[in-house]
Each structure stands twice: as C-alpha cells, then as structure tokens.
Design a protein that fits this description.
Number of strands: 9
Low-confidence stretches: 116-121, 127-147
Largest sheet: 3 strands, antiparallel
CATH architecture of the largest domain: 2-Layer Sandwich
Number of domains: 2
Number of helices: 8
Strand content: 15-25%
CATH class of the largest domain: Alpha Beta
Shape: elongated
Strand order of the largest sheet: 1-3-2
CATH topology of the largest domain: Alpha-Beta Plaits
C-alpha cells in the first residue's frame, strides 16, 4: 500500500513538473551536477535558479544532479549556474564565493573536494586540467561589481525624463538610444543575486521600451512607453539603490485618467507626461534613499 502511495506521489510530482515546464517557451532541458547535501540545499538551489516562466530547476539531493529547463532565448546554463553559485552551491563549472559557502547551515556544507577556497566575493569558473591526478583548480575569476554598475541606466533614464518634461521628442529619442546602449552593456552575472534575478525579469521590457522611444521623435508616443519604462526602473532602483535621493512621483491625469508614475532627482513636480501643458500636475508618493 505504501509503495502505491509513493508511486502516486511520484506521478503527481512528475505531472506538476511537466505542467510548470510547459509554461516555458523555447524550452531547453539539461542535466548538470550541483553540490549540496539536504532538503534545505534543494530549496535554496531551486529558489536561486528558478525564474518564473523562464527557468525551472529540479535538484535531486541523492544524485546531486539538477534538471534545468529554461527559455533558451532569454538565458543560458551559465547564467543559471552563476546564480546558484552566488547562493553558495558549487557546480563543476562555477564555484561559490568562499564567504557565502561558509555562511551556509552546517548541514548544507558539502565537501569541496579539490576546490581551492575563494578569498573574495567572486564566482569562479572552474577549469579542469587534463593532467592525470591533478586537482581541479579555478583559474579564472569574475570579480563581483556592485549593483551601481547599472547607474548609467538610471542616469540615462533621467535624461529621457528631462527631455519629455520639455516635450523635446528629438532629445528624448537620442537619450533613449543611449539608455538602450547602457542596458546592453550591463553584465548581469556580476549583479548581486536579488538584482540579477529582477534584471532577468525586466530586461526584455526595458529594451523594448527604450528602443520604441528611440525610434520616434513623437513625444506623445514616447510617453506611452515611458510609463512601463518608469515602472521597471522603479523596481530596479528599489532593489539596487542609487547614489542620490530619488523621488517617485505620480500624475493622476496620465494614461487616460488611470494615472502613471515616474522617477525624479528633484522633489519639485515637473510632469514628463504633459510638460508645459500641466507642468505641476502630480505629487511625490515615495522618497527612495
């Protein structure tokens, strides 16, 4: 009877996994070894790797193998393994930062056989030498940069906003093209884990909105895309912070009376959705420090 129940549970878990993977477009499934010990490891590994509708990770604590299904047009195995490494778990390709590994619960501290301890907050790519008997040695490290590497994205966003305040579609187009360039050069694997995961979620929309604003000089059309651009920039700024105080502001008249937000370095209201028509329409709803 017990064996029948176990079989039913396995079937339910399999069907749930299939249903979850079905939501991932352009799905590619790979199996990769990730080191860990217990149920806590499983929860942490899967949480670090998973990304709604983009990545699904299923880690087996007995075999130490992770089945990874992901949208091949939005991410790749390396990006997923780097996130897992940042959570404290080595794979055969990327090693976790030593400090993060040391902070794991005692039951989670798997044996790091043949792995050189990492002395800085870095995700280290593990290369294996072919010489017989030699231990695996990490020979390349990618130093973690602080989240402010996306400062250029924020700065260019403010430049677009300032142009729309002046209803200057030509400048908004130019500044948005610069915004798109700054988005494209961000090395997401070097962002802190929470910012990295958020970046993955909003990246496609950020590029889309910046490109749409850049391709036209019509300020009214640019403002349509500026609404969703502002929403995603707000989420990123909340997660990664900015080196200045920023004001999250709201205009109740924008978006056909549904209202829309924007971010400003100035607490004084200068409305990017209406410009001189209703320059002071709106209010500050949040101060981000």
């Amino acid at each position: 009877m017990k064996s029948i129940k176990n079989i039913l549970v396995a079937i339910v878990m399999l069907l749930s996994s299939v249903a979850g993977n079905a939501q991932i477009k352009n799905a590619k499934t790979e199996t990769v070894k990730v080191y860990g010990n217990c149920g806590i490891c499983k929860k942490t590994i899967e949480k670090a790797g998973n990304l709604k509708k983009v990545v699904s990770v299923d880690w087996n604590k007995n075999t130490k193998m992770a089945t990874v299904t992901y949208n091949s047009k939005k991410t790749n195995q390396d990006e997923i393994l780097k996130r897992i490494a940042l959570a404290g778990y080595d794979s055969d390709k990327f090693l976790a930062p030593d400090k993060v590994y040391k902070d794991l619960a005692e039951c989670c501290k798997y044996e790091r056989v043949g792995k050189i301890p990492i002395k800085s907050d870095a995700v280290v790519e593990n290369h294996t030498e072919s010489t017989k008997g030699e231990a695996q040695n990490p020979i390349k490290s990618e130093q973690m940069k602080p989240a402010n590497q996306i400062k250029a994205v924020f700065d260019n966003y403010f430049a677009v906003k300032d142009a729309l305040v002046k209803t200057d579609g030509a400048t908004a187009s130019t500044k948005s093209a610069e915004l798109l360039k700054s988005i494209n050069v961000v090395k997401m694997d070097q962002l802190e884990t929470d910012v990295h995961m958020l970046w993955m979620e909003v990246l496609a929309d950020l590029k889309e909105d910046a490109a749409r604003i850049a391709e036209t000089k019509d300020a009214s059309r640019q403002r349509d895309y500026f609404m969703t651009l502002s929403k995603n920039i707000y989420s990123l700024m909340k997660a990664s912070k900015y080196d200045e105080t920023v004001y999250y502001q709201f205009c109740p008249m924008a978006n056909d009376g549904k209202g829309a937000n924007w971010l400003s370095k100035d607490n004084e209201i200068k409305n990017p959705y209406y410009g001189s028509q209703m320059m002071n329409c709106g209010k500050t709803v949040e101060t981000i420090k």
